[in-house]
Amino acid sequence: MNDFLARLPRLLLNGYGLLVTAFILLPMALPVAVAFTSGDSLTFPPHGLSLRWFAAALDNAQFMTGLRLSLVIAFGSTVIATVAGIGAGVAISRYRFRGRGVVQAVLLAPLALPAIVLGLGLLFVLPWFGLRSGVVATMLGHALLGLPYVLSMVLAAFSNYDPALERASLNLGAGPVRTFFYVTLPLVRGGILAGALAAFLLSFDNISLSIFLSNNDTLPLRMMQQMQSYADPGVAALSTLLLIVSLGALLVIVPYLRQQAGKRPG
């Protein structure tokens, strides 16, 4: 009895961990399971096993049009967020100026802002610059969401960066521009790539902001509209393919974050 009571806290902790893990994994696992159904609607357990809905999803013209548009928007927003994140990261990590902390807080604010607040704000602000809902507006909105991720990764990379390498390059005759592109950027490219990948994925599967800024043509919105009218197993099949891509991206990002966490400034 005493042995059981001694082990009780550990058992409760393990049980809690299993519940949390199940809560996280089940929403991902169930769509994967029903994607292989041979039936005509989403049911669990699936009626038989088939790949028919994967083929149907890839042959769906609306889905493929949405996929192309989502890729264009995600690529454009990632480029904008990455360029802005690199510039902001260099300024914040390398220079001391008044209001530095405020600038960093403002740039990271989209992480904490509700998407509906950001979407409504952009609906009011973008027309001042002649922009309304559409590809460019959605691209800029997604870039605003991706910027904090790029900035965070770049700042993490610069926290382990040795500025003596830049000074050595300058002392050897390289100019500031050449030093930046051939010394600085290669040394922090891991953070840049991880941040850019996170920004791309965030843009690609975004729904909350796209509702305000796009014309309902992106892939996630088309999938949502399809599910509102019909429990289409093709949506589950497409979700499974996107999940595989996202997990592949995590395999790139997570090792980098672990590497950065294990480093200490020299």
From TrEMBL:
Residues 67-253 form the ABC transmembrane type-1 domain. Its main location: membrane. InterPro entries: MetI-like, MetI-like_sf. The keyword Cell inner membrane applies. The chain crosses the membrane at residues 12-36, 69-93, 105-129, 135-158, 179-204, 234-257. Belongs to the binding-protein-dependent transport system permease family. This is ABC transporter permease.
